[in-house]
Amino acid sequence: MMGPAAESPDAYIAALSGWQLERCRMMRAAIMAAAPFAETIKWTNLVFMANGPCILIRAEEQRVLLGLWRGKRLRDLEPRIKASGKYELGNLVLTEATEVSTEQVVRLAAEAFRLNAELGNPAARA
């Protein structure tokens, strides 16, 4: 199941409830505190842009994904990030029992922002 259909980042968060609401609210605030991201809705996900797509939050029925376009490069900071698909994508899969702190999310978001600034748009075709 994909995230809630929403027209704006605020609507995305407002459509959530329970632990997913609390977790997504915390991660959104941490990401926005880490760097000057632009928020949007893409592919039914809450996406944070910085020189291209950088981070996504996707709330599902039983889990929340923190997706990172350069996630494979961030596994030294967070070894629970799993490679996903092609290129450098990686996801941190969160359930209600998974612990993740604001500080961890801030660190990941700041480094993801730095990598996009240094390496360019990860979605651009070479």
List the helices and strands and how they pair.
Elements: H1 9-14, H2 18-34, E1 38-42, E2 45-49, E3 53-59, E4 64-68, E5 82-83, E6 90-94, H3 102-119
Antiparallel strand pairs: 1-2, 2-3, 3-4, 4-6, 5-6
Tell me about this structure.
This protein is an alpha+beta fold and 126 residues long. A six-stranded antiparallel beta sheet has the order 1-2-3-4-6-5, with helices on one face. It has three helices and six strands; from the N terminus they run ααββββββα. The mean pLDDT is 94. It has one domain: Aspartate Aminotransferase, domain 1 (Alpha-Beta Complex), CATH 3.90.1150.200. The relative contact order is 0.18. Helix 2 crosses helix 3 (102-119). The longest helix is centred in the last third of the chain and has 18 residues, at 102-119.
Could you provide a short overview of the structure?
This protein is 33% helix and 23% strand.
